[in-house]
Design a protein that fits this description.
With about 350 residues, the chain is mainly alpha-helical. It has 19 helices and five strands.
Length: about 350
């Protein structure tokens, strides 16, 4: 399966010395477009450059992605510095997570590209922050984070209290403490059904950086269901990408993880519509072409995503009900669009 090949080439790719590549040239060719489209091409290059495939056409494409991301990194860092200066001049202290924050766990920042800046600010400052940043010509920022606002109970003040500062040139960027950051990364990945390979690599990279001072109680939180969610996510990083987790309590916590969760992620990584996050609007045209049911099958809700949206457990018995419920909700929205057309 294509998803298994993607997992193989990315396995251990976040390490300074990644493991040997175990793919043939034909297999690498098969997944190259999905790697590039999901912005995991540079991370694949980190392993491919040490293999006998480093001089192939596909390898040069992956290396090209790495070079492009290295240039993007400089531009994004300048924008990030500008955002923090703008907000601090207004006495607003943002917290940055994912993206640049996640890249700090990789040996080279260009291995972890990103498109926008995920900022955590006080809810009552959303409008002011949006106006301030947008008025300065910056559009690639996001203040809405369901993994925090809907699926977690930690407030901005709680995150700020434990946050850390990382130097970026002549400015310091505030990021969540590693326990909060890892938890948010886990819930974010689950919310999207595990469809982003780089997101699971982020989790693997953070987990392997954990020291003995890591506060597991803070990471797991006081909600049993969410504690299982995040523990299962780390177990998935181990099973799919080979993340080293023996230094964590996860192996004993995730013994009951359903096998279908791993299969679901691998399946999504094999599907361009999911791995590339393509949200097309062609369902109406599919009605005319007679391909409606085929299109509906391709859009059947991801079981992990459905369970998280309805705050459920990852149970073989209850998850299908969450999928039906989400499908019905999406169908209602589609019907409304259909009437408009």
């Amino acid at each position: 399966m294509t998803g298994e090949l993607i997992a193989s080439v990315l396995s251990g790719g976040w390490r300074q010395q990644p493991p040997p590549l175990e793919l043939s040239g034909e297999q690498l060719d098969e997944i190259s477009e999905l790697l590039l489209g999901s912005r995991a091409g540079a991370l694949a290059w980190w392993k491919v450059q040490h293999s006998n495939l480093r001089d192939t056409v596909t390898a040069r494409k992956l290396e090209g992605a790495f070079r492009v991301y290295a240039i993007e990194k400089v531009v994004h860092q300048q924008t990030l510095q500008k955002i923090f200066r703008l907000l601090r001049n207004e006495n607003i202290e943002p917290i940055l997570y994912k993206g640049w924050s996640a890249s700090q766990f990789y040996p080279e920042a260009a291995l972890r590209p990103y498109l926008d800046f995920d900022l955590i600010v006080p809810v009552n400052q959303y409008k002011r922050v949006t106006e301030l940043i947008a008025s300065n010509g910056i559009r690639n920022f996001d203040l809405e984070h369901y993994e925090l606002n809907r699926f977690d109970s930690r407030s901005y003040d709680e995150l700020l209290d434990r946050s850390e500062l990382i130097n970026l040139g002549d400015i310091q960027i505030r990021v969540p403490c590693v326990e909060d950051h890892l938890r948010l990364l886990c819930i974010h990945l689950l919310k999207h059904g595990g469809s982003g390979p780089l997101w699971l690599c982020d989790i693997a990279a953070v987990v392997e950086s954990i020291s003995g001072e890591f506060d597991w109680n803070r990471f797991l939180g006081n909600r049993i269901r969410q504690a299982n969610w995040v523990a299962y996510t780390i177990e998935l990083a181990h099973r799919i990408l080979g993340a080293q987790i023996d230094h964590t309590p996860v192996p004993s916590m995730a013994k009951k993880i359903p096998l279908w969760m791993e299969r679901s992620i691998i399946k999504d990584w094999s599907t361009p519509r999911r791995i590339l996050h393509i949200h097309d609007t062609l369902m109406i045209e599919s009605l005319k072409s007679g391909a409606f049911f085929s299109a509906l099958r391709l859009r059947w809700p991801n079981p992990i995503e459905a369970a998280v949206i309805y705050n459920g457990s990852f149970s073989r018995l209850t998850t299908p009900a969450h999928q039906f419920r989400l499908c019905a909700s999406q169908a209602i929205k589609f019907a409304a669009k259909l009437r408009q057309n």
